[in-house]
Amino acid sequence: MLALIAGQGGLPLALAASLGAAGTPYRVYALEGFAPDLPQVTVFRVEALGRVVRDMRKAGITEVCFAGAMQRPKVEMGKLHPLSLPLVPRLMKVIGDGDDRLLREVIAIFEEAGLRVLGAHDIAPGLLAPKGALGDVAPSETLRAEAARGAEILRVTGPLDIGQGCVVAGGLCLAIETLPGTDAMLRFVAQTRPDPGPGGVLVKRAKPGQDLRIDMPAIGPDTVAAAQAAGLAGIVLQAGHILILDRDATRTAADAAGIAIWGVT
Amino acid sequence: MLALIAGQGGLPLALAASLGAAGTPYRVYALEGFAPDLPQVTVFRVEALGRVVRDMRKAGITEVCFAGAMQRPKVEMGKLHPLSLPLVPRLMKVIGDGDDRLLREVIAIFEEAGLRVLGAHDIAPGLLAPKGALGDVAPSETLRAEAARGAEILRVTGPLDIGQGCVVAGGLCLAIETLPGTDAMLRFVAQTRPDPGPGGVLVKRAKPGQDLRIDMPAIGPDTVAAAQAAGLAGIVLQAGHILILDRDATRTAADAAGIAIWGVT
To answer: What positions does the domain LpxI C-terminal occupy (chains A, B) (predicted)?
Structure first.
């Protein structure tokens, strides 16, 4: 049996829909405060993590998939379940090393308990960005050059474990994605552009060597709206490494906004 | 005779005050739209650049210093002075390559005309950030570790010619400076922090290999206020590579805010 460990946003819903359509049984677990809008969610506090892993095993769960946005929850030491105690020093050790390192440790905890950790792309490969144009607007030569500059920026910043996106316009980098995420970055661009476009491209790529089972970058119709508000003319995605939530709505929104959206290797 | 090619912000004023105190004669030139609050400024449009360089020579100018913020002005081709025509293809060629490359070309144009280009630090070395604590608040071990992470981030991003600052808190990168500058970055942090501090550090460093004669990073009392609004606990500067405008007011503001401000190599 598969368990979705679900956070917020559209991804858990898209996965649930995909699993439902395929007739695959699954359960949904969620951290308190980040539960998705799905029925029959088992909510738990992070202090109970050790117990939850044991309970999953007892309930016949063999595979888990982390899906959707979760911020780091505050841990109240007084509420720790005894089974979580061995995990505290492990997680404390990596808590200052960036999200990637912390999430790899969380994966390891589940795997050591005998649970296989899958990525969203393992469950629903149809969500992955394809290569080539997604909509009707073809990217100009200028956009392609800006996309190449953005890809170079993300290749360099990737090992720093900072973020998975940037905005390039007129050959200049207007923003690099950090902890607050893509939408916050696009709002920053909308607020700070002296001359709000149209022009420039949002570049989304996974970090080089990133474990795609956790924190795979995702976009959707909201991303297109935010890119439009920022005056951008394009969105370029790393094919096979970015999830597109609601592809039809995303393509329709991009076409309506005159935004080129395409995948590259 | 020295000419300040002055933009906005506190730097041209600080240099004028420093030159005045030393009894050094100077003239002030400024791009239309970016003139500083100084008397007797010769304002010119970018289309007249070729003529301005010739006029400087005629007026006995031998040295120039670029000081203060200027955005890229719009060029109206119909207004180009004949002496500017040879500069157009040179500047167009590098206009998409980032600010550094463009500014190096501008420096080259002045130097080829026989004008020596000085940095603000050549004229007023007293403005440079010193090594060690600037104010009364000592940086904690946590702040020093965050400062080291920020320095590493800027060492990696430096060659990309993106910006000269970042914000690190709790081991995580909250923001990387891009075109809109330090204040815009700090406003972004203030807006997006889920838990606005206090904590975290603003890191300011020159880009590795940067020509300090143009676009040397600068901070001042306003930077301290913006860092305080973002909930930060420290500001760390690359000694000898950052200008501090109004050092007394900057130190007083940092002490009053309980912000550690210090220089490192």
So the answer is: 130-262
Domain of A177 in residue numbering reads as 128-264
Of the residues B123, B148, B168, the one at which a domain ends: B123
User: What type of residue is A179?
Assistant: L
- Test mutation, B192, B193, B195, B207, chain A, max A CBs within 10 A: B192
Tell me, yes or no, whether A115 and A6 share the same domain: yes
CB contact under 8 A, A171 and B97: yes
Q: Which of B103, B123, B143 corresponds to the end of one domain?
A: B123
Q: List per-residue pLDDT tens for chain B, 265 residues long.
A: 999 998 888 889 989 999 998 899 999 999 888 888 888 899 998 888 899 999 999 999 999 999 877 777 788 888 888 888 888 888 888 876 766 778 888 899 999 999 999 999 899 988 999 999 999 999 999 999 999 999 999 999 988 888 899 999 988 899 999 988 999 999 999 999 876 556 999 999 998 888 888 778 889 999 999 999 999 999 999 999 999 988 999 999 999 999 999 999 9
Query: Is the CA virtual torsion A158, A161, A163, A167 positive or negative?
Result: negative
The CATH number covering residue A233 comes to 3.40.140.80
- Is B162 in Cβ contact with A160 (below 8 Å)? no
Encoding tokens for residue B243? Answer: 């200008």
Q: What is the CATH number of the domain that holds A81?
A: 3.40.50.20
Query: Do B174 and B234 sit in the same domain of this protein?
Result: yes
Question: Which residues in chain B are closer than 8 Å to A231, comparing Cβ atoms?
Answer: none
Query: What residues contact B207, with CB distance under 8 A and at least 6 apart?
Result: B100, B154, B158, B159, B161, B164
Instruction: Round to whole Å and give the CA distance between B65 and B107.
Output: 10
**Interchain pair A174, B175: CB under 8 A:** no
Q: How far apart are CA A199 and CA A196, in angstroms?
A: 8
A161 contacts A207 by C-beta, under 8 angstroms: yes
Token pair in block for residue B216: 């040397």
Q: How far is A118 from chain B, CA to nearest CA, in Å?
A: 26
DSSP A23-73: T--EEEEEETT---S-SSEEEE-GGGHHHHHHHHHHTT--EEEEESB-PPP
Q: Are residues B132 and B119 in the same domain?
A: no
Same domain for B96 and B216, yes or no, is no
Number of domain units in chain B: 2
> Does residue A58 share a domain with residue A182?
no
* Cis amide bond preceding A198, omega within 30: yes
The first and second tokens of residue B134, run together, are 């600037």
Judge if B74 and B183 occupy the same domain.
no
Question: Judging by DSSP bridges, how do beta strands B218-219 and B243-244 pair with one another?
Answer: parallel
B163 CB-contact burial (10 Å; exposed 0-12 / middle 13-18 / buried 19+): buried
Q: Are residues B147 and B215 in the same domain?
A: yes
- What ipTM did this prediction achieve? 0.77
Q: At what angle do helices A221-229 and A247-257 cross, to 10 degrees?
A: 20
